Task: inverse folding
């Protein structure tokens, strides 16, 4: 289930190992993507969009209703501002890298060290290039790399696309979280848990069904397939691996209340804002839309 992390953490775009790319925006009609909700407090209205933190050229353009909302939005709320690279790099150095003199492979038990070295060799990645990464950071970097092999690029991430559209007319970007907070979720893992996180990832990279699973998850977003997204969440809930449990509790459930609080606060002070958060935050009984409805707000799914 490591692959599902890609829809939860915006700062993964800073791990992009590809050349920067730009998605062409046109006036072409386009089908719905992800999921879109309308949230209202009786005075103000906000659109809540489910994003995915990678992208491909055929993700764009987004459908007209969302494009029009972005073109007029005074504020766009995202988990993180994609242009806040300095904060992302600072947090990555503080939480994701070993201090001088410590090296990744030296910290791993021999069986995991051998599997890690074999995976790096298979992917054509030099050991020296990842020696300063902590196990969880290497696991996420390998996840991003696997998505890249399928043509899904961090440089075309949906969050970045939304931000570019709002910045084009002078709109404000509001961060609902911080890179520091997101990365701290991982750095609080014990050494043994970090090793398990990496081990789970290596096993999944060897899974013959991974290609299908990646395409299934992204295609569910691409076609606004609510049933497919619910199935992905259900699969996560049914998987008893450490990584799946960590993803479900720490990366989704525990973050949803804070995301909902930030979106509700924005709605109460600003009309016609747009919020974009990872798509799996919008699915399930403890999702952000469900939490907003519990606050007495009117929540309606548009697609």
Result:
């Amino acid at each position: 289930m490591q692959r599902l992390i890609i829809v939860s953490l915006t700062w993964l775009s800073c791990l992009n190992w590809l050349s920067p790319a730009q998605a062409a925006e046109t006036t072409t009609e386009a089908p719905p993507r992800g999921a879109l909700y309308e949230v209202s407090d009786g005075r103000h209205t906000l659109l809540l969009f489910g994003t995915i933190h990678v992208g491909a050229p055929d993700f764009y353009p987004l459908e007209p209703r969302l494009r029009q909302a972005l073109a007029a939005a005074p504020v766009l709320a995202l988990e993180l501002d994609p242009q806040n690279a300095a904060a992302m790099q600072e947090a990555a150095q503080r939480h994701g890298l070993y201090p001088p003199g410590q090296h990744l492979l030296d910290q791993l038990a021999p069986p995991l060290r051998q599997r890690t070295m074999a995976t790096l060799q298979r992917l054509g990645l030099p050991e020296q290039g990842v020696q300063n990464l902590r196990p969880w950071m290497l696991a996420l970097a390998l996840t991003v790399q696997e998505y890249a092999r399928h043509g899904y690029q961090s440089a075309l991430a949906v969050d970045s696309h939304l931000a570019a559209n709002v910045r084009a007319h002078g709109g404000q970007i509001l961060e609902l979280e911080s890179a520091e907070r997101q990365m701290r979720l991982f750095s609080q893992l014990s050494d043994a848990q970090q090793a398990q996180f990496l081990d789970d990832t290596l096993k999944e990279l060897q899974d013959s069904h991974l290609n299908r699973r990646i395409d299934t998850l992204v295609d569910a977003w691409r076609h606004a397939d609510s049933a497919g997204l619910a199935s992905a969440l259900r699969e996560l809930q049914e998987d008893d691996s450490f990584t799946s449990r960590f993803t479900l509790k720490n990366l989704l459930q525990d973050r949803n209340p804070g995301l909902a609080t930030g979106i509700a606060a924005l709605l109460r002070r600003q009309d016609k804002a747009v919020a974009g958060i990872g798509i799996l935050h919008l699915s399930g009984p403890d999702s952000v839309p469900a939490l907003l409805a519990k606050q007495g707000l009117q929540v309606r799914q548009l697609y």
Q: What stands out?
A: The radius of gyration is 19 Å. The longest helix spans residues 135-149. The chain has a mean pLDDT of 91. The longest strand covers residues 45-51.
